[in-house]
Amino acid sequence: MIEDMTKNFTLGGDLTIRRLGFGAMRLPFGTFRGPARDPRTGIAVLRRAVELGVNHIDTAAFYERSGVRSNELIREALTPYPEDLVIATKVGPMAADDGGMLSREAAPDELRGLVEGNLTDLGLDRLDLVYLRVGGMGPVGGFSIGDRFAALAELRDEGLIRHLGVSNVDTAQLAEARAIAPVVSVQNRFGVHEQGDRALLAECEAAGIAFVPFFSLGGGGAVEADETALRRVAARHGVTTHQLALAWSLAISPAVLAIPGTGSVEHLEQNMRAADIELTSEDLADLA
């Protein structure tokens, strides 16, 4: 249910959150192959995010590097948790022995252990939102997710999970999941740099399902947009291209929830100012 076209979204009919949230992936590391960050920096970023009004944090147990783990940083920084804070996490990928996050996909009977691990690491009795994250970093879709999503639906029925989402899916996989249990959110690669999922976004908007882009600032090897257009529109508003890309995400649909991630307090504060940028129809046309 869409609550406020500019600021808020009601997730699953009962959790009203601000559309500009925070993604925790960058807390343990700056780059995919870089060293671990100082955990004290991650704690400072999380506390500042909440001070700035963030009440939606997206995380995963496999966001970790050399013993620095996003879930543990969240628990240390923010417990006792603010009453309105919604924490979303993802399960599905199994960590490799060398710490790689996408070694293989969990079987249905392995998902309970992953959910319980998130509960323990975050210090929670119930997870607000759990995504089934499927596939690797290649093409999306082309296989069934029903058995694994059904396993999560059983955990929802038991009360370990409040709401369910799916991540890295196509329209057929979303339909398969929705036939099993309610889906309140879809998390896919999308942004001004890569707009291929516009039809799926429109489907989510029509159904009242949140659409949560990952790599919305062009990370993860996404295709580069016309940087001239990005710079031109950003200059009109006196903002950075990253701020402009976030503002674009929030402007194209009231169903979009942005979750930019960073390991820097300064960068966090820049990202949060994107919520106040109002784009015109001319801006949106330039960035289409």
Question: What would you note in describing this structure?
Answer:
The protein is of the alpha/beta class and 288 residues long. The chain has a single domain, classed as TIM Barrel, CATH 3.20.20.100. Helices cover 36% and strands 18% of the residues. The chain has 10 helices and 13 strands. The strands form 4 sheets. A 7-stranded parallel beta sheet has the order 3-4-7-10-11-12-13. Strands 1-2 form a two-stranded antiparallel ribbon. Strand 5 and strand 6 form a beta hairpin. Helix 1 packs across helix 2, helix 1 runs parallel beside helix 9 and helix 7 packs across helix 8. The longest helix has 13 residues. The protein is globular, with a radius of gyration of 18 Å.
Show the helix and strand layout.
Layout: E1 8-11, E2 15-18, E3 22-23, H1 39-51, E4 56-60, E5 64-65, E6 68-69, H2 70-78, E7 86-91, E8 93-94, E9 104-105, H3 111-122, E10 127-133, H4 146-158, E11 161-167, H5 171-178, E12 185-189, H6 198-207, E13 210-214, H7 227-237, H8 241-252, H9 265-272, H10 281-287
Parallel strand pairs: 3-4, 4-7, 7-10, 10-11, 11-12, 12-13
Antiparallel strand pairs: 1-2, 5-6, 8-9
Shape: globular
Largest sheet features: 7 strands, parallel
CATH architecture grouping: Alpha-Beta Barrel
What top-tier CATH class fits best? Alpha Beta
Give average pLDDT, whole number.
91
CATH topology: TIM Barrel
Distance between the termini: 26 Å
The ordered H/E elements are: EEEHEEEHEEEHEHEHEHEHHHH
Structural class: alpha/beta
Fourth CATH level, the homologous superfamily: NADP-dependent oxidoreductase domain
The count of helical stretches stands at 10
Strand content: 15-25%
Count of DSSP strands: 13
Quickly count the domains: 1
- Uncertain spans, ≥5 residues at pLDDT below 50? 1-5, 220-224
Strand order of the largest sheet: 3-4-7-10-11-12-13
What is the share of helical residues? 25-40%
Which radius of gyration do the C-alpha atoms yield?
18 Å
